[in-house]
């Protein structure tokens, strides 16, 4: 009886937060969150054992996902007895799902989060098999099997190989952000020297591109997948967050057009260097890093030139104003009204 | 017994106002999102809130930037007349507002609007052309713009209060302070013969229409 009351209390608390999640992120509700996807999900869960519930998700989730991490631990401690009598009770003991159908909104919101975490784990496992099988549903299927799930769980990935590539992008970007944040902390604590902007950019881009090295053979295939029309918005979003993060940690706090020009320049540098890397056969990609160095020097040079032009322009304008005022004085137009 | 207890708790969660439910009870945010311990803007709980705050801050920044340029235009024409010091004083307050928003934008990694160069030129031209109509013209322009901006700040204050007044306390404070400053400018404009210009009603409405369009566009681009 006490256990049941505890569970009800927990579920009410989850319902509140679930409502918060759903109300705050209406787009999170899966479009076809129908019995079909739930069926898939329950099928994959039945093949799991309890140990899976302790693994944290690896992909860079949005903040709402991390929000749910906090109380998924809660769910683990209290096995969710649930209302739906048609489900297998053994699977429900192992499941972290809130399957209370009394609270559809919260339940849908939570299922979405749990499913995303599951997808993230499958895709991370699948990355191991990419060098062998390329960026394909095959790699995802084998990845799912290594986690003890049926290869039919690839049905969860509506975008197929695109999901895998985008997940990899997100993972690399969040790794880079962690590294940059760590460096930033070190500088703040006084344990490291502050790098010059050009050096910082070069190191950040090099670090990020080095994450491609294990997959460099199949990266052209990944790039072509990213160029598919339905993947372009997502890949652009990842690219723009990457560039924004790098500039933020490089110390850029501009709030005018410089914000745009800096990011555009870095995007150009990153993309061209990536392309050079694909065709580079020198030891440890030395030619690529030289290319990167030169491009960054170009941008720095352009910035310096732009500044010089601006100050020259200002001086010229001042000269003209001086001449104009002199003329006005001579012709007597410059009087106080 | 179980069902009654569950239903009671479920009803209880419905009785709580939307404000409480919206409030993020446990908000874990990636540390890289904010590097300062104290910030005027609360760290957003999810992407929807981040987008809403981004829009608000972007358009506020664009508004202050535009107001800055309008006063610059007015000063360029009327700077050496009797109204010069008055306009300079109002301009200094706008500069203070702009620097505050620059700070907030940089802290919260908000993208500034891409139309800033456009507002730069348009604002300066508006200020200069209204000042060419004389002191009354400049004051009429000030009245129109400040009224638009105060209305805009008021609607933002309403939106934030609706969502969660406690969460946004500092931000609300900042916006309220700026709104009060803008209303003061509006009243100053009226005191200094803004309504005496011929065609006041036409000028005022035309400028306010332009301001509304600028606000709409700056939120999105």
UniProtKB/TrEMBL annotation, chain A:
Cellular compartments per GO CC: mitochondrial inner membrane
Subcellular location: Mitochondrion
Matching InterPro entries: COQ9_C, COQ9_HTH, Ubiq_biosynth_COQ9
Residue ranges constituting the Ubiquinone biosynthesis protein COQ9 HTH domain according to the UniProt record: 115-145
Mitochondrion as UniProt keyword: yes
Principal place of residence: mitochondrion
Signal peptide: none
Entry keywords, A to Z: Lipid-binding, Mitochondrion, Transit peptide, Ubiquinone biosynthesis
Record region (Disordered): 46-116
GO biological process terms on file: ubiquinone biosynthetic process
Domain (COQ9 C-terminal): residue spans on this chain: 232-302
GO-annotated molecular function: lipid binding
Pathway: Cofactor biosynthesis; ubiquinone biosynthesis
Subunit structure: Homodimer. Heterodimer; two heterodimers of COQ7:COQ9 come together on the same side of the lipid pseudo-bilayer and form a curved tetramer with a hydrophobic surface suitable for membrane interaction. These two tetramers assemble into a soluble octamer with a pseudo-bilayer of lipids captured within. Interacts with COQ7; this interaction allows ubiquinone (CoQ) isoprene intermediates presentation to COQ7 and facilitates the COQ7-mediated hydroxylase step.
Family: Belongs to the COQ9 family.
Protein function: Membrane-associated protein that warps the membrane surface to access and bind aromatic isoprenes with high specificity, including ubiquinone (CoQ) isoprene intermediates and presents them directly to Coq7, therefore facilitating the Coq7-mediated hydroxylase step. Participates in the biosynthesis of coenzyme Q, also named ubiquinone, an essential lipid-soluble electron transporter for aerobic cellular respiration.
Protein name: Ubiquinone biosynthesis protein
Organism encoding this protein: Perca fluviatilis (European perch)
Automatic annotation (TrEMBL), chain B:
Keywords per UniProt: Iron, Membrane, Metal-binding, Mitochondrion, Mitochondrion inner membrane, Monooxygenase, Oxidoreductase, Ubiquinone biosynthesis
Location of the protein in the cell: Mitochondrion inner membrane
Pathway named in the protein's UniProt entry: Cofactor biosynthesis; ubiquinone biosynthesis
EC number: 1.14.99.60
SUPFAM superfamilies the UniProt entry points to: Ferritin-like
Membrane-related topology note: Peripheral membrane protein
Enzyme class: oxidoreductase
Residue numbers binding Fe cation 1: 64, 94, 97, 182
Cofactor note: Binds 2 iron ions per subunit.
Signal peptide limits: none
Source species, domain of life: Eukaryota
Binding-site residues, Fe cation 2: 94, 146, 182, 185
Catalytic activity of the protein: a 5-methoxy-2-methyl-3-(all-trans-polyprenyl)benzene-1,4-diol + AH2 + O2 = a 3-demethylubiquinol + A + H2O
GO cellular component, one term: extrinsic component of mitochondrial inner membrane
Cofactor(s) of this protein: Fe cation
Molecular function per GO: 3-demethoxyubiquinol 3-hydroxylase activity; metal ion binding; oxidoreductase activity, acting on paired donors, with incorporation or reduction of molecular oxygen, NAD(P)H as one donor, and incorporation of one atom of oxygen
HAMAP family: COQ7 (MF_01658)
Self-association state and partner proteins as the record states: Component of a multi-subunit COQ enzyme complex, composed of at least COQ3, COQ4, COQ5, COQ6, COQ7 and COQ9. Interacts with ADCK4 and COQ6. Interacts with COQ9.
Its biological purpose: Catalyzes the hydroxylation of 2-polyprenyl-3-methyl-6-methoxy-1,4-benzoquinol (DMQH2) during ubiquinone biosynthesis. Has also a structural role in the COQ enzyme complex, stabilizing other COQ polypeptides. Involved in lifespan determination in a ubiquinone-independent manner.
Family in the record: Belongs to the COQ7 family.
Protein name: 5-demethoxyubiquinone hydroxylase, mitochondrial
Gene this protein is translated from: COQ7
């Amino acid at each position: 009886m006490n256990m049941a009351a505890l569970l009800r209390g927990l579920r009410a608390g989850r319902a509140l937060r679930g409502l918060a999640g759903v109300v705050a992120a209406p787009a999170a509700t899966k479009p076809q969150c129908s019995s079909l996807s739930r069926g898939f999900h329950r099928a994959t869960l039945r093949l799991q054992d309890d140990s899976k519930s302790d693994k944290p998700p690896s992909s860079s989730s949005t903040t709402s996902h991390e929000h749910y991490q906090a109380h998924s631990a809660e769910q683990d401690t209290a096995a969710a007895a649930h209302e739906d009598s048609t489900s297998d009770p053994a699977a429900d003991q192992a499941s972290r799902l809130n399957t209370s159908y009394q609270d559809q909104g919260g339940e849908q919101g939570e299922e979405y989060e749990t499913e995303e975490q599951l997808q993230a784990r499958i895709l991370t496992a699948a990355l191991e098999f990419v060098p062998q099988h390329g960026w394909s549903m095959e790699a995802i299927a084998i990845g799912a099997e290594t986690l003890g799930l049926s290869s039919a769980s690839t049905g969860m990935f509506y975008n197929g190989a695109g999901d895998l590539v985008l997940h990899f992008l997100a993972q690399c970007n969040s790794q880079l952000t962690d590294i940059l944040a760590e460096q930033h902390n070190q500088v703040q604590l006084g344990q490291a020297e502050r790098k010059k902007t050009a050096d910082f950019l070069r190191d950040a881009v090099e670090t990020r591109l080095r994450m491609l090295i294990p997959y460099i053979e199949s990266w052209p295939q990944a790039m072509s997948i990213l160029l598919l029309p339905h993947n372009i918005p997502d890949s652009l979003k990842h690219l723009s967050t990457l560039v924004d993060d790098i500039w933020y940690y490089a110390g850029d706090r501009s709030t005018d057009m410089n914000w745009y020009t800096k990011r555009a320049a870095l995007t150009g540098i990153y993309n061209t260097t990536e392309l050079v890397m694909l065709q580079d056969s020198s030891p440890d990609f030395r030619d690529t890093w030289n290319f990167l160095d030169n491009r960054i020097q170009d941008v720095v040079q352009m910035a310096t030139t732009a500044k010089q032009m601006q100050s020259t322009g200002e001086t010229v304008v001042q000269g003209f104003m001086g001449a104009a005022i002199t003329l006005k004085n001579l012709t007597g137009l410059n009087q106080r009204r | 017994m179980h069902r009654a207890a569950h239903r009671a708790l479920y009803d209880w969660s419905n009785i709580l106002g939307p404000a409480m439910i919206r409030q993020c009870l446990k908000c874990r945010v990636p540390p890289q999102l904010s590097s300062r311990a104290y910030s005027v803007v609360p760290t957003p709980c999810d992407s929807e809130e981040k987008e809403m705050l981004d829009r608000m801050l972007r358009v506020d920044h664009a508004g202050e930037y535009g107001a800055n340029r309008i006063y610059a235009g007015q000063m360029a024409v009327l700077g050496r007349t009797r109204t010069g010091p008055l306009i300079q004083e109002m301009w200094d307050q706008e500069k203070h507002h702009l620097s505050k928003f620059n700070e907030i934008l940089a802290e919260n990694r908000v993208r500034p609007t891409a139309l800033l160069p456009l507002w730069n030129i348009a604002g300066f031209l508006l200020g200069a052309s209204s000042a060419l109509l004389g002191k009354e013209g400049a004051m009429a322009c000030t009245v129109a713009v400040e009224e638009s901006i105060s209305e805009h700040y008021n609607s933002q204050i309403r939106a934030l209060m609706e969502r969660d007044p406690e969460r946004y306390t500092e931000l609300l404070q900042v916006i309220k302070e700026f709104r009060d400053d803008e209303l003061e400018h509006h009243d100053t404009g009226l005191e200094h013969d803004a309504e005496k210009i011929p065609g006041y009603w036409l000028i005022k409405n035309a400028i306010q229409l332009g301001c509304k369009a600028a606000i709409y566009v700056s939120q999105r681009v």
